[in-house]
Structures are given as C-alpha cells and as structure tokens.
Amino acid sequence: MREPVDLRRQRILAAVQSRGAVRVSDLAVELAVSVVTVRRDVEELARVGQLRRGHGVARPVLPETQRPSAPMPPSADGGPVAVVVPERHAYLYEALHGARTVFEKAGIRIALHIAPAAPGAEQPLVERALAEGARGLLIAPRWRSRTTEEADYAWLSRLDVPAVVMERRPRRGSALHAVDTVCTDHWYGIHLAVGHLTELGHRRIVLAARDDSPTARAIRAAFTEIAADHPDVDEWAVVLSSPGAVPDRAATAENPVELPSMMAELGATAAVLHGDVDALMLVQSLRDSGVRVPEDCSVIAYDDVVAALGSTPLTAVSPPKADVGRAAAELLLQRLDPRDSEGAAAPVRRLELLPSLKVRGSTQAPRTSATTGPTAVAK
After folding, report:
1. What confidence tens digit (pLDDT) does each residue in 9-29 have?
2. Burial class for 19, CB neighbours closer than 10 Å (0-12, 13-18, 19+)
3. Burial of 35 (0-12, 13-18, 19+ CB in 10 A)
4. DSSP state, 249?
5. Whole-number Å distance between alpha carbons of 279 and 192
C-alpha cells in the first residue's frame, strides 16, 4: 500500500524538526522509498520554505539556537488544532480521517505532525506546534514501551492548551490520568474473539501478538485474563507475532515462536493474531507448514485494517477507528468553544468505544476434537 505524498513529506518534516539535520539517504531507508524520491520531496519542501536543503541533507528552517522556545499568542482566528500521530500507522490514520471530518465541519484547520519512531519524538513536535499558535492538541503517542509512555506523562499533563489523547489509556493514578482520552475497549474485543471461537467449539487457542504499543499490551493482558477464566478454554498460550514486534529491538527476553510448532505442541485449533499484517504473514506461515485456514485452524485478526484483503478474508476484531477520531475531535471542540462554558469546565472524560467482530471466511468449527488438535502439523 503506497503512502500518500503529503503524509511522506509530513514524516520528513517531523524527522527534521525533531532531530535537526538528517541525511537524505537515511530518510530514504526509514521511509522505504528511493533516494531520488526523498530528494524530490526535500526540494519541494525547501521551495515552499518548510526546510532547508544542504549537500545530501535536510535541515530545519531555523537553526537550533533560533527556534522559538515559548508559545506565541494564538492567531486572530484562534489558530489550528495540532494533530500528532506516529508514522506508518494505518490504524491511527483511519482515526485521523474521522477527526478530520469533524474539524473541517467546524471550520477549524488541522496542523498535522507525523512523529518518527525515535523515543520522545512527539514532545518537540508539540512544542513547535504550540509555538506556531496551535490552540488545541489531539495526540496518539507511539509509546513502544511503558518506559517511554511514562516519560511523556509529565509534559503532556502540563500543556497550556486543551488536549485529548487518542487510542491510549494512561496508567491509573499517573499525571496524565486527568487528561481527556478516547480509546477502544480492547478487553471487549478479545472477549468477542474468544467467545466466537469457543462457540464454534474451539477449546485450545493461541494468541500471537505484538508487544510494542499500548494496544498490543492491552490485547495481551485481556487475552490472558479471559482465556484463564473462560470455562470453555482448556489450553491457551501467548507468543510474539514477529521478531520486530517488541519495544526494544535489541531485547531478547521473549523470542518469537514458530506458530505452527506452537499450535501442534498445544493441540490448538484456533489463533488470534495481532495486527493485520502480522496476521496475514502468519496465515501464510501456517499454510507453508501444511495447516489450512480455516479447515485445520481458525484465525481471527485484530485491527481490521487490511484483514479482509487476504486470499482467505480474515475474521477480525474491528475497533471503531474513525469513530474514535470523531469522538476525540468532538471532545476537543467542546473544550475549545468559548461559548460553551459548561463544556470547557466539564469533568475530565475517559471515553471507551466498543469494537465489533467481522465474521469472514477464516473461522469455522474444528474438524478434530479439541483434545487432539491439528495432529497433521509436524513439529
């Protein structure tokens, strides 16, 4: 799926703003495009005055010592709303589109900032947005690990403008507990997935999940709780979905397990796979090992961004991504409206929207008994 040009250029700007001078060749690797493509983007961004070109590098418009350090007063029209989302995150881009419709209807401009994968990348982007006059913030931090998550709590809680955190649930009792949030109830999503599989007759289930985002951690915790307490689940396991799906790519605490081998060892007849791309790749791995989906193994994907595009369309838990964005934008507008004194002073809200289950062709009743599992799979 080719990334839109404007999003790619936002990512280039975000990298330059957060890191200073960046080599064009490094940007090409990070963006997974050619050096020629990045060079053209940099030339265009320099032409419109958004960055400076150097010999093989892209530089910020202002040197570090000249960048604004304090927010400027809002413009006469109230200024834009800053929206900060991670790069290469199709799930959150859908939420962004939901928010966009609300802001456009209200006549409010969005200043979009794409945060690169580096830890702490969001803070300089937010500071720059406020310095440029943003009057509110809608943000979905990457938070690959709990450490990077908690490092953002203090500065996010001290912002001078209304802010809504989207698809993130800060730790209870933290400095960010009293900030508006809108997110998906991922516990309910896993409840739907396990319930669907057990109703079909599956008794041994594996979760192959990422471990590098708040959503991934919520899914893992929910599956562990639900599977352990479910009267119709006899055996279950949680494994890492891919080698790169960890907070620290150098970490070795948990190694990815070959899903076919794990399923055979457990006698499992079903798997829940997070997220969609990993799910599609794991289904291919199962098929390469002789495990047919859904004949030998039922599969449910979690995210439902591209799950329906597989050669066998995958049954999927579908978070209300666009609705999360719309609800977050509506909540922020309520905080920003000077005519709505009650809205501006209303209690802080932590909204949760329920996902749904889209049943497609990758789930069916098991062919074999739950006690024997897919015995045709060789370890």
Report:
1. 888 888 887 777 888 888 888
2. middle
3. middle
4. T
5. 17
* pTM, two decimal places: 0.75
* Rounded-to-integer distance, Cα 61 and Cα 17, Å: 9
Residue with tokens 């989302």: 85
Which residue positions in the chain have pLDDT lower than 70? 1-3, 62-78, 248-257, 338-345, 368-379
Categorise residue 78: left if φ over 0, alpha if ψ from -120 to 50, beta otherwise: left
For 3-27, give the DSSP string.
PPHHHHHHHHHHHHHHHSSEEHHHH
Residue matched to tokens 């409206």 = 337
Q: Bin 222: left if φ > 0, else alpha if -120 < ψ < 50, else beta.
A: alpha
Q: What is the pLDDT of residues 339-367, one digit of tens each?
A: 555 555 678 999 999 999 999 999 999 98
Q: What is the pLDDT of residue 374?
A: 35
- Whole-number Å distance between alpha carbons of 289 and 167: 36
Which residue reads 């730790």 in tokens?
Answer: 171
- In our burial notation (b when 16+ CB lie closer than 10 A, e otherwise), range 68-82 reads eeebeeeeeebbbbb
Q: What is the largest CA-CA distance in the chain?
A: 70
177 phi-psi bin (left φ>0, alpha ψ -120 to 50, beta other): alpha
Instruction: Dig out the tokens for 247 from the structure.
Output: 């907070």
Closest CA to 267 of 379, 191, 365, 190: 379
Contact 32, 62 (CB under 8 A): no
Q: How many CB atoms lie within 10 A of CB 342?
A: 8
Tens-digit pLDDT profile for residues 231-282: 999 999 999 887 777 876 555 445 556 788 888 899 999 999 998 988 998 8
d(CA 91, CA 170): 19
Q: Which residues pair with 288 in a beta bridge?
A: none
Residue 154, SS3 per DSSP: helix
The H or E element containing residue 214 is: helix 214-229
